[in-house]
Amino acid sequence: MSTVSEYINPENFEKFLDIQEGERGIASFLGENPQAIYWTFCRPGGHTRYVFKEFPIGTRYVADFVILNSYSGLWEVMFIELEPVDDLTFNKSGTPTKRFLGSLKQVDDWAEYFDEHKLQVRSDLVRWAQTKDILCYSDPSFVCNDSGDYLVDPSTTIWESFHVIIGRRHALSKEGRRRKATYTTKRDVEVMSYDRILDMVKERYRDQSFWISNMKEI
User: What is residue 178's three-state secondary structure?
Assistant: First the structure.
């Protein structure tokens, strides 16, 4: 099952980001254009693809977005926390902002819950793939990749990762960018700015005539 991707105008998207306050606007945009967040995280693509918005992790937590992707017999699930587009990652002193620290605590809680309740979360992922997928690329009737690996099967390999999107690139100093990168290596949490999505949009949708004339699938 596939759907035709709507063209995302890079110039309009950049202007949209520039005027955003908070995260509600970008969350709404990504909910309506899930291909933007999918391709930001999965540039090589996958043969089985799903995107969920406001995915519950147990009864206490909710991930803003979750990407479920599969290729070469492997399933990967990406839990994504959105923070304000106009927020800072670090204070002038170089210390993490209160908002950023809160997001790190949030994903730490997700990671702990996932580690302790993998079968339950796996079951929820299958159910959401069947009923609440917003990408509409893969067949929801059976959540299985091209290698015959059913996600519901506990023996199927699934790799989890955790991500925080916060602020804009221009608000980070060189030292701030270095500090941000350390969270991936030291805490296993990827921290990125919304400009990462903008980079993808500019690269993938730069040729409007190509997309309109060919009506490419997402």
Answer: helix
Distances (CA, A) of 198 to 8, 138, 208: 10, 25, 15
Other beta carbons less than 10 A from residue 1's beta carbon: 9
For residue 51, the tally of other CB atoms under 10 A from its CB is 30
Closest by CA to 145, choosing from 41, 5, 50, 36, is: 50
Q: How would you label 92-112 residue by residue, b for 16+ Cβ within 10 Å and e otherwise?
A: eeeebbeebeebbebbeebbe
With a threshold of 0.70, does the pTM exceed it?
A: yes
Rounded CA-CA distance 45/43 in Å is 5
Per-residue pLDDT of 145-180, as tens digits, reads: 888 999 999 999 999 999 999 999 999 999 989 998
Whether 34 and 27 have beta carbons less than 8 Å apart is answered as: no
Strand partners, 96: 90
- Determine if residue 22 is left, alpha or beta; phi over 0 gives left, psi from -120 to 50 gives alpha, anything else beta: left
Q: What letter would DSSP give residue 6?
A: P
Which among 196, 199, 200, 192 is positioned nearest to 103, based on CA atoms? Answer: 192
